[in-house]
Amino acid sequence: MEEDDVKSTVSTEDSSSDGVDVDAPRIPPVQVTSPTTQSITKRPASYYYTVAAAILSILAAANPSLFISFGGISTAFFTWYLSTLEAAPLLTKCVTGALLGIIGDYGAQWFESKKLLELRRQHHIISTTTSSWKYDYQRGRGIMMENFLISCPLQHYGYDLFERMLPIEGGSEFYMSFAAVVHVFFDCVVLDGIFVATGILFGGVFEGHNLMKYVLPNLRNTYFSALRAALITDLSFAPVEFLAFRFLPLPLRVLSVNAVDLVWNGVVSYAFHGEVENVDM
Fold first, then answer.
1. Which residue among 89, 191, 194, 229 is buried most deeply as judged by most CB within 10 Å?
2. Which residues does 225 contact at the CB level (< 8 Å), separation at least 6?
3. CB atoms within 10 A of CB 134
4. Cα separation of 10 and 40, whole Å?
5. Rounded Cα–Cα distance for residues 51 and 72 (Å)
């Protein structure tokens, strides 16, 4: 008799616990991987297209006559751009860098939305038919203003300082190649370390975030991961940057590096935006 009571009690507890497990929706915890390693280890096809575009831009800047066969429109545009660059170098570089920053951030936002949607689908958080993506104009405006007001002017005067300290033109072939390597090193290590910090700080402020509550904590949390992503991207494009520093005149180096920065801006923007936004799934 006592065994029957015990069995009935155990079965009642099991059924009640089973009832709780059945009724309660089970959503497995979402494990968000680090965006910097996720986005770099697997390179998208656009990475290789951007490398090709950067190389073509360097060739076009070095010898525009090679590309006359593409039509008079492209040649006329390139001639107009060179004349504008000569008349107002700083302003032209800032406008170009701001536009390329928007394009890079657009790609980063698109990639973030695809990764976030994939995570939600895997864990059945939303229906696959309710997916939509809207471009964050406030974030794009922040990236554009930071490039226009901070990064591009710093890049312009930084390259000028590199050239005064260690001129590339003049001397033997070995010396010019060595000087170009030194320029690339300081650009990737020194300037990009500053660009990552200014991108997080001023970009966050220009986006309208609170400095103490959001921007500074985001700087502490994402700076080193974003810097790591930037250095890995720089290492991938180091040969292209070497060609730009070695063979292009000083006014065209910012333009060629900005073409490479299409990928750099996207990776870095994803590094210090994606990790924070993925938490808010």
1. 229
2. 34, 35, 36, 271, 272, 275
3. 7
4. 53
5. 25
Tell me which residue has tokens 């006592």. 2
Name the residue among 129, 133, 126 with its Cα closest to residue 108: 133
* Cβ-contact 91, 156 below 8 angstroms: no
Listed residue (103, 89, 245) closest to 152, CA to CA: 89
Report residue 177 CA to chain centroid gap.
Answer: 28
Q: How many CB atoms lie within 10 A of CB 148?
A: 20
Angle CA 228–194–263, to nearest 5: 55
Output the six-digit token pair for 237.
Answer: 């494009």
- Phi first, then psi, for residue 149 (nearest 5°) are -95, -25
pTM over 0.70: no
C-alpha distances out from residue 169 to 89, 180, 191, 254, 270, Å: 20, 10, 22, 17, 37
* pLDDT for res 105: 87
148-184 per-position pLDDT tens digit: 999 999 989 998 999 999 998 878 889 999 999 999 9
Nearest alpha-carbon partner for 267 in 88, 107, 94: 107
Round to whole Å and give the CA distance between 242 and 58: 11
How distant, in Å, are the alpha carbons of 28, 42, 64, 187, 254 from that of 85? 55, 36, 15, 21, 11
Over the range 57-96, which residues count as b (16 or more CB within 10 Å of their CB) and which as e? Answer: bbebbeeeeeeeeeeeeebeebeeebeebeeebeebbbbb
Question: Rounded to an integer, what distance in angstroms lies between the CA atom of residue 145 and that of residue 202?
Answer: 9
